[in-house]
Amino acid sequence: MGWTLTLCTTYDSTSVRDETRWENIRAPNSESKTKEFRLQGRTCMYRKIRCAMQELIDHYRTMLVIRFFEEEVEDLFSQGVVKGTTHPAIGQEAVAVGACAALRPGDYVTSTHRGHGHFLARGGDPKRIMAELFGKQSGYSGGRGGSQFMADFSLGFLGGNGITGGSIPVATGAALSAKLQASEQIALCFFGDGAANQGTFHESLNLVAIWKLPVVYVCENNMYAMSMPVGDAFAVTDIADRAAGYGFPGVVVDGNDPIAVQRAVETAAERARQGEGATLIECKTYRLSGHSRGDQRHYRTREEEARARAADPILRLREMLSADGTLSDEDDVSLKDEARRVVSDAVTFAQESEYPDPTTLEKGVFA
Ligand SMILES: Cc1ncc(C[n+]2csc(CCOP(=O)(O)OP(=O)(O)O)c2C)c(N)n1
Ligand SMILES: [Mg+2]
User: Fold this and answer.
1) Does ligand 1 lie within 6 Å of residue 5's CB atom?
2) Is the full-model pTM beyond 0.85?
């Protein structure tokens, strides 16, 4: 097996850096060297990581499936085929793929309103996710949930959530159950920058901290909460700094680098499994698409978007794999064909599936 080299920078949250000196990463199929340096008055980690090429190709493949899936869903919504609303995670694929790659099969994942990528990265079936978007019986929620309300407990995927920050306390409960059963499971909790300003965030982080629950918080800082830029919503530069207020580590990673995300989650997951409690990982990324369908994006410039597109995680990974000689142009074409086929098969499955029987309308209605 060949090896390739990637570089990650991880910033320790200032006030807890002494107790959060991270060990060299000991993932089974990687080697790393860690060096400390000072940047803007804080101690930072600089990691050179050698990864198995296959691991990167797998990440690239999954990121492509997510990208094409989301693009297809946007198209289907504009055609009126899929109804309701949807929040595409275009540009954020590296967070979902890197984070889920660090998990074990029994671990829990809680997601957000922007959760198709999380679900696909966790092993969700693209056909059943698409069928749910079509409102079909074969969808994950029998066609009753739609974009934000799908789950698969057999994958530990506890579902998306239409309430900003709503899944953060769900992760607390999942982690509490894991701790009470001493099961070594952890709960990985995805949420956005906007959710970090919800009360549930602060209440959950405090409870998790005092009970030392096994949670890995993955904050997808995509720079906006709807039209609100993070610079106007936070008095701190890094959301990760908030972890210090609860007494556990907070780190910032490049959310457009799946390996940086994966290694940070692996380290945090290990910490959680050993009973040392939670970690808050802030993944700096960018939402390349609008907040949801119909968003005209008046709150930001096309120049800013062009700069963000130049850092597109899929392009970056592709360039890295090509420069390294790992991925030829032909390989790239065939991986993209394969990913497009996964998505078109999902659409066909959804189209051919039946709508739920109207006589079951009240099934699942509790109040
Ligand atoms: C409690 C609550 N308040 C407001 C909303 C409306 N809303 C939907 S998405 C969203 C922004 C969330 O921003 P962020 O957490 O950064 O996630 P992103 O959309 O950027 O992925 C808001 C305010 C909501 N769904 N729930
Ligand atoms: Mg956001």
Assistant:
1) no
2) yes
